[in-house]
UniProtKB/TrEMBL annotation:
GO cellular component: cytosol
Name of the protein this chain belongs to: Glucose-6-phosphate 1-dehydrogenase
Gene that this polypeptide is encoded by: zwf
EC number(s) recorded for this UniProt protein: 1.1.1.49
Source organism (scientific name): Lentilactobacillus curieae
Domain Glucose-6-phosphate dehydrogenase C-terminal: 192-488
Function recorded in the entry: Catalyzes the oxidation of glucose 6-phosphate to 6-phosphogluconolactone.
InterPro entries referenced in this protein's UniProt entry, alphabetically: G6P_DH, G6P_DH_AS, G6P_DH_C, G6P_DH_NAD-bd, NAD(P)-bd_dom_sf
Family of the protein in this entry: Belongs to the glucose-6-phosphate dehydrogenase family.
Pathway: Carbohydrate degradation; pentose phosphate pathway; D-ribulose 5-phosphate from D-glucose 6-phosphate (oxidative stage): step 1/3
């Protein structure tokens, strides 16, 4: 039986792309499942001159997929209200406050408030400050929680400035920094696989693991996001947040309990032992790329995309080697890569185990092949599942081994029923569970690491473009591993 969550959700940026595409469907799913029932209300705000009626039409459209129960949508949208509001105008906050108080009484919300800022990041600090100063935070038994979208700063300094601004109004445990990767089913499954299985956790260290590989590949280019993307690049857009979060889940020690505070503290400890590179190490251990045009003329090169300057040195691809200086991981590289216009769209983690120290089956004179390393692959998307490569006898005359795959994939029905990241994350906010959000110490450590790479790249001239669409990035990304006598587990044409 789902627990009903009682709250007012005040949404800043209610007419924006994220709200209409992701947030309303996510809130509707919580309503369908009974996590939200009678005791919730949403105040949408933006400068747009909407009334409740028009706003409800927008929300209704955004949740009305084929086969939707129309009566349910009707009752759902009655919980939505609109206040035209410019976040920079102090006078507007009193209207918002009155509306919040009215709805609190009407829906018996007990002073619980979620403030969701789905706006450009330069407004995050302003909104947080004004919410407090203009008396929108409730006092007494209700909760006040602030949800912040990405990006959280563009380097450590700007992130700290933003965090200082938020901290004037909200405590750290009231701030939920969204990293939607943390809402994905298989990312959350990393903890289940590691800490729920002796066969993995017992081997999860530098005695048995040779290296770990994390790949977040996209086959699209920048599409309509060129303005944002060219200012950011793959390092800031993907590595600082999503990849560092995944890596910290893979590298952390077992938390004392499966509780947000315990998990966060282990992730922070792991990130603090991540080696921050000096200039020479950053140049050697990180590779950047930018896509060229495709040979068939189908795809433009990055520098020719609409909104991208012709001399842009923004990277659309990053690969790197991360090293943890701690007892568990000393000597085990974590290789990461992400990029646009790659061969396919997928996210996966490959945990590559060491080969047995002695290979008693290797009879080169008989043409037998060497044992393969065991590889545990966590398929995060689009398929959700695991595969484990083990060596087995190949069933033929004589004694020959071959690698075989043990696979488990979620079936499409179950995958369809799995909550989408925003549904899961909004539910966590309503529950007050910060496990799947980035805490400030995590964000700070990630920026300190990434800033060092950025510093080096900002003074070195890249040789762009350097990879073709449909590939897995520049040759240098393969060389990064070849230098260590390793290779990427996922290669083209597998
Ligand atoms: N879209 C995505 O898929 C996506 C994915 C991940 C993260 N994000 C993050 O989510 C946030 C929102 O993105 P978005 O794509 O939804 O942006 P967007 O489409 O540009 O929407 C921005 C919203 O802010 C409102 N707004 C702008 N200035 C305002 C002001 N002075 N006072 C009040 N409201 C104002 C706009 O409405 P008016 O112009 O009517 O005021 C609009 O509702 C950003 O931080 C973005 O980085 C977005």
């Amino acid at each position: 039986m789902p627990t009903e969550r009682r709250s007012l959700i005040m949404l800043f940026g209610a007419t924006g792309d994220l709200a209409t595409r992701k947030l309303y469907p996510a809130i509707f799913n919580l309503y369908k499942k009974g996590n939200l029932k009678e005791h919730f209300a949403v105040i949408g705000t933006s400068r747009y001159k909407f009334d409740d009626e028009k706003f409800r039409e927008t929300v209704s459209k955004s949740v009305s997929e084929k086969g939707v129960d129309k009566k349910l949508v009707e009752s759902f949208i009655k919980h939505f209200f609109f206040v035209t509001h410019d976040v920079t105008d102090l006078d507007h906050y009193s209207v918002l406050k009155e509306k919040a108080e009215e709805l609190d009484k009407k829906f018996k919300l007990e002073g619980n408030r979620v403030f969701y800022i789905s706006m450009a990041p330069n407004f995050f600090g302003t909104v947080a400050k004004n919410l407090k100063n203009q008396g929108l935070l409730t006092e007494g038994k209700g909760f006040n929680r602030l949800v912040i979208e990405k990006p959280f700063g563009r380097d450590f300094e700007s992130a700290k400035e933003l965090n200082d601004a938020l901290s004037e109004s909200f405590e750290e445990n009231q701030i939920y920094r969204i990293d939607h990767y943390l809402g994905k089913e298989m990312i959350q499954n990393i903890e289940a696989v590691r800490f729920g299985n002796t066969i993995f956790e017992a081997l999860w260290n530098n005695r048995y693991i040779d290296n770990i590989q994390v790949t977040l590949a996209e086959n699209l280019g920048v599409e309509e996001r060129a303005g944002y993307y060219d200012n950011s690049g793959a390092l800031r857009d993907m590595v600082q947040n999503h990849i560092m979060q995944i890596v910290s889940l893979l590298a952390m020690e077992q938390p004392v309990a499966f509780k947000d505070t315990d998990i966060r503290s282990e992730k922070v400890k792991a990130l603090r032992s991540l080696r921050v590179y000096n200039v020479a190490e950053a140049s050697t251990n990180f590779v950047r790329g930018q896509y060229s045009a495709s040979g068939d003329g189908e795809t433009k090169e990055y520098r020719e995309e609409d909104g991208v300057p012709a001399d842009s040195n923004t990277e659309t691809f990053v690969a790197g080697k991360l090293l943890f200086d701690n007892y568990r991981w000393s000597g085990v590289p974590f290789y990461i890569r992400t990029g646009k216009k790659l061969a396919d769209k997928f996210t996966r983690v490959d945990v590559v185990f060491k080969k047995p120290l002695v290979d008693i089956f290797s009879f080169p004179q008989d043409g037998n092949t060497l044992l393969s390393p065991n590889v545990l692959t966590i398929h995060i998307e689009p398929e959700q599942g695991f595969s484990l490569v083990v060596n087995a006898k190949n069933g033929e005359q004589g004694f020959h081994t071959e690698p075989v795959n043990l696979d488990f994939y979620e079936n499409s029905q179950r995958t369809k029923a799995t909550p989408q990241p925003y549904e899961r994350l909004i539910h966590d906010v309503l529950k007050g569970d910060g496990t799947n959000f980035s805490s400030w110490p995590e964000v700070a450590s990630a920026w300190k690491f990434v800033d060092q790479i950025r510093r080096v790249w900002d003074i070195q001239q890249p040789m762009f473009p350097n990879y073709i669409p449909g590939s897995m990035g520049p040759v240098a990304a393969d060389e990064l591993l070849a230098r260590d006598h390793r290779e990427w587990i996922y290669k083209l044409n597998q």
